[in-house]
Design brief:
InterPro entries: AB_hydrolase_fold, Cholesterol_Oxidase. GO terms for molecular function: oxidoreductase activity. Its cofactor is FAD. This is Esterase. The protein is an alpha/beta fold and 352 residues long. Helix content is 36%, strand content 16%. The longest helix is centred in the N-terminal third of the chain and has 20 residues. It starts with 12 loop residues before the first strand and ends with a helix.
Length: 352
């Protein structure tokens, strides 16, 4: 039975808990609780590239944080090294998988005193967290709800063209791409890209929305459908996207060409090729994707679901959400009715 999500606001208590990643980088968690103490286990929410933990709290009537708290969960938002709350840095998925997520999980365990938690992971938070799980670095996580992409990144031909041919040109002048250049373009390469985006993207008047589509996908727009966003969210997202390093795009391009996640830094704790290594996790995965995802095609999650199901039948699940794309799964004005109940249903399941 699909859980119902109540449409009302809570008064919350928030704590910011700093933690130190395995390589010494200062990161943090945001613990959000309602007026009543949580009655269920902690759930860790992990954002994607070039955004921050706040991406799960768009200005909609009911956010995923609201929905989880209403169901009694103890909500923890992770700001890992890709977060725009921190200074831009040349991060890789390997670093996040080895240094960030395992320490975030350990911090939640230490703060709450529980032995097991669950997680909701999105985009590059999902790929890197999946790497952590498959390498056996987060055994405390028993259920993982993964949105958009995990083990098998698949993109459109146009996206692959941009990654293959445009990325090296940008790298000559910058180590980063930044959708916020649509608001302020401080350098020559920022001005060139802004001009290119303005010449080719006419889907709306939001400069950051258009830059996001150029940076992360092949659509107009790429990460959501405009009809799924309310006006306040569309305006709010101007300040929710910033710098993402080209070294990440180089790694994900390599993964796309191989067909699955590969590591690039030679850390002994991570396999070179994640499909060739046996997963060191008993976690149950619930794979989600929007049917209209133009950042990572739905085939991405389908391929990963089939891979995990071949290893353990009737254990993992797949949800392809009609009329949704990439981030509107969480930010959509109707997501509380369309997607959140399915996510909560997966969290409620007992792993057998």
């Amino acid at each position: 039975m699909v859980a119902e999500v109540p449409a009302f606001k809570h008064k919350y208590t928030e704590r910011v808990i700093p933690f130190t990643a395995g390589d010494g980088m200062a990161l943090n968690l945001i613990n959000v609780q309602g007026e009543k103490p949580p009655s269920k286990c902690p759930v860790l929410l992990v954002h994607g590239a070039g955004v921050r933990a706040n991406i799960f709290r768009a200005p909609v009537e009911v956010t995923i944080v609201d929905a989880l708290i209403a169901q009694g969960y103890d909500v923890w938002l992770e700001n890992w090294r890709a977060s725009i709350d921190f200074a831009p840095n040349l991060w890789t998925l390997d670093q996040a998988a080895l240094y960030d997520h395992p320490q975030a999980v350990k911090t939640v365990i230490a703060e709450t005193g529980v032995s097991e938690i669950k997680a909701i992971i999105h985009c590059q938070g999902s790929t890197s967290f999946t790497m952590s799980a498959m390498a056996g670095l987060i055994p405390e996580v028993t259920t993982i709800v993964s949105n958009a992409v995990s083990l098998h990144p698949v993109v459109s031909k146009w996206s692959l063209f941009k990654l293959t041919y445009l990325l090296p040109l940008v790298k000559v002048m910058s180590q980063y791409l930044n959708p916020h250049w649509g608001v302020q373009a401080p350098t020559l390469i920022a001005k060139i890209i802004t001009l290119l985006v303005n010449l080719t993207h006419h889907e709306c008047n939001n400069a950051v929305c258009k830059q996001v589509s150029f940076t992360y996908g092949s659509g107009f727009p790429a990460l959501w459908s405009h009809e799924n966003l309310n006006e306040e969210t569309h305006e709010w997202l101007k300040e929710e996207f910033a710098a993402v390093p080209l070294c990440f795009f180089e790694q994900i391009t390599r993964c796309i060409n191989v067909g699955n996640l590969v590591s690039v830094q030679g850390f002994k704790e991570l396999p070179d090729d994640f499909v060739q290594a046996t997963p060191k996790t008993d976690a149950r995965f619930a794979f989600f994707t929007g049917a209209n995802n133009l950042c990572f095609l739905p085939q991405s999650q389908l391929n990963t679901y089939e891979y995990f199901s071949a290893l353990r039948q009737n254990y993992h699940t797949l949800h392809i959400l009609p009329d949704y794309g990439h981030l509107d799964v969480f930010m959509g004005k109707n997501a509380a009715q369309d997607t959140f109940p399915l996510i909560i249903q997966e969290l409620e399941k007992t792993n057998t």
